[in-house]
Amino acid sequence: MSRILNKEITVKDFKIEPSKYPKKEGDKCLTIQIALNGETYIIFTSSSVLSDQIQQLDKSDFPFLATIVQEGESFEFR
To answer: What's the rounded mean pLDDT across residues 23-37?
Structure first.
């Protein structure tokens, strides 16, 4: 995640599944497909803030431009 923080990315798609490494019951893993500098990458995160934000979007909103920033110990889209 640190390699893409504060950089404008294109978010292409996502999925949310149960985490393979849950810290507590109900932990989810957010998989995000992004593009940065013309290259496509896959990012895995357990960030509940990112998960909540991305679920509020409609599939017709994809792809979209965003920047992932760190606020305290949380990550969020801007």
So the answer is: 88
